[in-house]
Amino acid sequence: MKYYKKKKDVKFGWGEITDAEEKAMRQMSLKLMIIYLEQQKDDMGEEIKQLTEFILNVTQQAIEKYKHKYDNPRAQACKDILRQYQSTFNRKKLLVGRQARFQQQIHNFQNIIEHINDIETNQMVFREMKAANEIFKKLTSEQPSLEEIDAMMGNFENIAAQNKDVSDRLSTPLQVSTDVDDAVIDKEYEDLLTQQYLDELDSDMPDVPTHPVQSKKPTLQEDRRDDNKDEDHKSLELSEEYQADTNRKDTQSKRTSKDKSTILLQQ
């Protein structure tokens, strides 16, 4: 397995290695090493099992062979097997020792990985606690005083009272009086028209001269002009009377519609 050492400002073919990527690569290397050691340990266990079965078989054969020669054939068979298969026993002992060492190394690597995970967890908890402490300090510094809270509550109460007043006014039907005298309305309208006519008449009147005026004999053209003015004045009076009559009818029609609307609202 090939390892790469991280250097500052060094970029590989796939890009620059960050601290998080380096940490992940180290954990992956440890996990791969654990897998390798477990595989070697399993292979050793299989070989130890085969050697043990071989020793048991030859020992059983020796016991059967020495059964009729010695009083204790098992002890004699064990001595002969130990002397004859010394290398096999040494191989088994070596494998058992290596298997135990591999198991210890696996345990150590697992502890390292757990320790790294604990450190990362502690760092994350510390960062969260630091952020929470900053938020708590900010909230504490921005906490309003009791006077500000009382003023705020007073404003809320005033706004609620105003909203209730507006709601009550909107929910209360309008009290419209229907006892209206038509003669009074007609009289007021005629007064308004008369006042408007007088204002227009005053605006058409010439100003009083401030110097002596010499009288002139009217000519024929001036007489005709005066006749035309008289006719125009009469036409104007007729049109104004017609307009006044029309306005009076419109007022009566509007008043009738208003009375009907008031009656419908009250119903």
Automatic annotation (TrEMBL):
Biased composition (Basic and acidic residues): 219-237, 246-261
Pfam families on file: Snf7 (PF03357)
InterPro entries: Snf7_fam
Gene Ontology biological process terms in this record: vacuolar transport
Region (Disordered): 202-267
UniProt-recorded name of the protein: Viral A-type inclusion protein
